[in-house]
Write a structure and sequence with these properties.
This protein is mainly α. It has two domains: about 10-190, Growth Hormone, Chain: A (Up-down Bundle), CATH 1.20.1250; about 215-400, Growth Hormone, Chain: A (Up-down Bundle). It has helices at about 5, 10-45, 50-75, 80-95, 100-130, 135-145, 145-165, 165-175, 180-190, 195-200, 220-250, 260-285, 285-305, 310-325, 330-340, 345-360, 360-370, 375-395. Helix 2 packs antiparallel against helix 9 (about 180-190) and helix 11 (about 220-250) packs parallel to helix 16 (about 345-360). The radius of gyration is 20 Å and the shape is globular. The protein starts with a helix and ends in a 12-residue tail after the last helix.
């Protein structure tokens, strides 16, 4: 299974680990927030709505960060921008530990989100351009799996720190640990070169404008890429935002708050990323999207329209993580292969982060619809809509598996 990795050259391996580490540390810094929310509610007496606003603001601003970072990556370089974005989100995560009230954290959290979005845009195009065509799906998808490692690390450290430190200190300590990704900048600077194809494109006589992704032959590709990303992320946010609420309030399940349930979901997510990465190269990008979109929809229906016990709930956590997370392994490779080198960062950054920005409103729409229908029906309706969008976009997009990139 690791034969593809042994075939990588030194530059490819260094780039792989730089991007893997960047995404894992990005996940670590982002997921810290979910573990400090209970402490902030208790200490600052913020409402659930304010806690949600802190999460939403970072998500929406991350969409702008990803698009801007994608455009800059086409101008200043992929590796350079990856360094800048890693340093950015590490600094603002660290700064979050000094905040004294909701308003301060709202601002700092939003700025951290800018770096969070930018890191994916820079790292995804970097790894996509460096890895050869026959292994691109496996390599980019495996980098995506680093999210589960960062998420798991945040869960473990949060558990330990909240046990050994008082609550009023523990949440700050967790944010202070968020400075650790800054060490990765030193590795990237000394070990990771700019992709050869990017260097060739920068000296080419003809260059596309950043906004060419909205014109001519690239406009349909940009629209379809953005629609694909909207569906995948809309389904993910719909499921992960409201399923815990539904199961806790309407099904009265208690396993949701346990470490065991979280561990099952994280392990399922990691395996979903890996399996999707391999399938993307084995059967093609489009078929892979079909499998994971249908699987995600079926698991959403199983959660919301069948009677579930605590024991079954624990077991279903695995396919929930597997399908809902695994679908993202195919996103980086296909967006890399859809756009020419001179605007690849702009195209990839816009599509993925436009999807993130629109998808951020899916949970709000679910909540609004649940005022007139049951919450389970609202979740099912928006999950069905989201994954139907994925399938339709994948049907129209060209199959790009094995595409060789050129310096265009």
């Amino acid at each position: 299974m690791l034969g593809w990795y042994r075939e990588l050259g030194t530059a490819e391996r260094r780039t792989f680990w730089a991007c893997f580490g960047g995404w894992a540390l990005d996940a670590f810094d982002v997921q810290i927030y979910s573990f400090v929310v209970p402490a902030l509610i208790a200490l600052w007496h913020i409402t659930n709505a304010q806690a949600g606003l802190l999460a939403t603001s970072a998500l929406v601003i991350s969409a702008f960060g990803g698009w801007i970072a994608g455009m800059l990556a086409d101008r200043v370089g992929r590796a350079r921008l990856l360094m800048a974005m890693v340093a950015w989100f590490a600094f603002f995560t660290f700064l979050s530990g000094f905040t004294q009230n909701f308003e301060q954290l709202l601002v700092v959290r939003g700025l951290q989100g800018f770096g969070f979005g930018g890191e994916w845009a820079a790292g995804s195009v970097l790894i996509g351009e460096v890895i050869r065509a026959q292994h691109r799906g496996k390599a980019v998808g495996t980098v995506q799996s680093a999210w589960a490692w960062g998420w798991g690390a945040a869960a473990i450290l949060a558990t330990v720190i909240f046990q050994v430190l008082p609550q009023e200190i523990a949440w700050r300590a967790l944010f202070f640990l968020g400075i650790s990704p800054a060490l990765l900048v030193l590795y990237i600077r000394s070990k990771v070169p700019e992709p050869q194809i990017f260097q060739e494109a920068t000296v080419a006589a003809a260059r596309r404008s950043t906004f060419d992704i909205f014109r001519g032959d690239l406009l349909p590709t940009t629209i379809l890429g953005a629609v694909l990303a909207t569906g995948a992320q809309g389904g993910y946010y719909t499921i992960t935002t409201f399923l815990p609420t539904f199961l806790r309030t309407q099904r009265h399940l208690t396993v949701l708050g346990t470490g065991g349930y979280l561990a099952v979901i994280i392990v399922g997510s990691w395996l979903g990323y890996i399996v999707s990465a391999y399938l993307s190269d084995a059967i093609g990008r489009r078929r892979n999207f079909f499998i994971f979109a249908i699987g995600s929809l079926l698991i959403a229906v199983a959660y919301t329209h069948t009677e579930i016990s605590n024991s079954l709930m624990l077991e279903l956590g695995f396919p929930l993580g597997f399908f809902a997370s695994g679908i993202f392994s195919g996103m980086g490779p296909v967006l890399t292969e859809l756009f020419p080198t001179s605007v690849r960062g702009a195209g990839q950054g816009f599509c993925y982060n436009f999807g993130r920005g629109i998808a951020a409103f899916f949970p709000t729409l679910v909540g609004m619809l649940s005022a007139s229908v049951t919450l389970s029906a609202a979740i099912g309706a928006f999950a069905a809509l989201a994954y139907a969008i994925v399938i339709l976009a994948a049907l129209v997009l060209p199959e790009t598996r094995g595409k060789e990139l050129v310096a265009d």
